[in-house]
Design brief:
The structure holds two protein chains of two kinds.
Chain A: H1 2-23, E1 26-34, E2 37-39, E3 42-45, E4 50-57, E5 63-67, E6 72-76, E7 81-86, E8 92-98, E9 106-111
Parallel strand pairs in A: 1-4, 3-9
Antiparallel strand pairs in A: 1-2, 4-7, 5-6, 5-8, 8-9
Chain B: H1 2-25, H2 32-52, H3 54-63, H4 65-96, H5 106-140, H6 146-172, H7 176-204, H8 227-236, H9 244-269
The chains are: A alpha+beta, B mainly alpha.
């Protein structure tokens, strides 16, 4: 039956891919939002590691951390903090922006 | 103004597409309009509440409350869409022939209507809360340019609602013999797309392994931020750089709901 075949091949795929993901370590990094800008505007992170990103919003208004490259989005309330997990990333430049103030809130993660 | 219009358009579009499809799929159910309207109002009220409590929700579960909340809302929506689709598979034919009375199914029809209200309400709740926060940010900003941003917001909202209406009106023009298949497939894809989004939030919260990230990268070919990308994202859950786990969720939802629909159909015929 097709459904069983599909389910079992999905399971095998999951088992194959799960092993490397589970072994990756986590590294902590912090981004600060102030005056609708990211500090630092470029954050250098290690490639091949899962990253725990803390974002601290020092502005009074909410901001949405958004990145198409990283496939992440998260709202951070005014004067609030947020945590999210990224990667493990291949080496490269990953742009992100603050969707609510995209004119100024631009930045990038550089994985190397 | 343009930037504001795009942001609001994007948030409104997803909810509008869901409502447009669901409204078309259930247009022959008596009273469905009222339930959809009730769902919209409840969703708007809920969005306001969620926006106010963003901070409190976010700080739950050691900082990943927002992801959990989104994943749960999406999960409930997937279940409701699944229920709806399976229900339609067994009752669609009866609803299609207006000559035939659906009186015996009134009780069933009522629970279908409350499911309908929940689907609509949850769609607005999720997308609406972000829009409320964004507009609040604008309102709190001092100085000029506010009028143009309000105009932008209204433009985005109007365009989003127009897109939802377009798919609704378009679906109603589909010939009857294709109609239930068309709406059924669209709802199925909506649900699978939401399952994939739920997986993305759980990965972001580190509650699920990502499995291969990204599984593919089609961002150069069809960027998510383009209008076709946004529409495809809203309709079929398009993701230009998905994680492997998202595809697993997508396919499992597709298979499970598809199987449920198949299983429900012969049960109707034998009646």
């Amino acid at each position: 039956m097709n459904f069983v075949k599909l389910a079992s091949s999905l399971f095998c795929l999951a088992a194959l891919l799960l092993a490397p993901a589970a072994s990756a370590e986590t590294a902590d990094y912090t981004l600060v939002i102030q005056d609708h800008r990211f500090q630092p505007p470029e954050l250098i992170v290690p490639s091949g590691k899962k990253i725990k990103l803390l974002i601290e919003n020092r502005d009074a208004t909410p901001e949405e951390f958004e990145s198409y490259a990283l496939n992440r989005e998260k709202v951070i309330s005014g004067q609030g903090k947020a945590t999210l997990y990224i990667g493990p990333l291949a080496p490269g430049r990953y742009q992100f922006f603050g969707e609510f103030n995209a004119d100024t809130a631009q930045g990038a993660l550089i994985a190397q | 103004m343009f930037g504001t219009a795009i942001i609001v358009f994007r948030e409104v579009l997803e909810a509008a597409l869901i409502i447009g499809i669901v409204a078309a799929a259930t247009h022959s159910i008596p009273g469905s309009r009222r339930w959809i309207l009730a769902g919209m109002l409840a969703g708007l009220a809920g969005a306001g509440v969620v926006a106010v409590f963003t901070d409190a929700i976010g700080s739950l579960a050691s900082g990943v409350g927002q992801e959990l909340f989104n994943a749960i809302v999406l999960g409930i929506a997937v279940l409701m869409l699944a229920w709806h689709n399976i229900w339609m598979s067994s009752h669609g034919a009866a609803l299609a022939s207006s000559a035939r009375s659906v009186g015996g199914d009134i009780r069933d029809g009522r629970s279908e209507c409350s499911v309908l209200m929940l689907i609509v309400g949850l769609a607005i709740l999720r997308e609406g809360a972000e829009t409320v926060l964004f507009l609040y940010g604008i309102a709190a900003t001092e100085g000029g340019g506010r009028t143009s941003m309000v105009l932008g917001g209204l433009t985005g909202m109007t365009l989003g609602i127009a897109a939802g209406y377009l798919i609704y009106a378009g679906l109603l023009r589909v010939p009857l013999r294709w109609f239930f298949t068309a709406t059924g497939v669209l709802v199925l894809l909506l649900a699978a797309g939401m399952a994939s989004q739920a997986a993305r939030f759980l990965i972001q919260a580190d509650l699920l392994p990502s499995l291969a990230v990204p599984l593919w990268d089609t961002s150069a070919f069809l960027p998510e931020e383009s209008v076709p990308g946004m529409v495809l994202r809203g309709l079929v859950g398009y993701d230009s750089r998905p994680a492997g786990m998202q595809l697993v969720f997508y396919l499992v939802a597709l298979a499970a709901i598809g199987f449920g629909m198949k299983w429900a159909k012969p049960a109707h015929k034998s009646k």
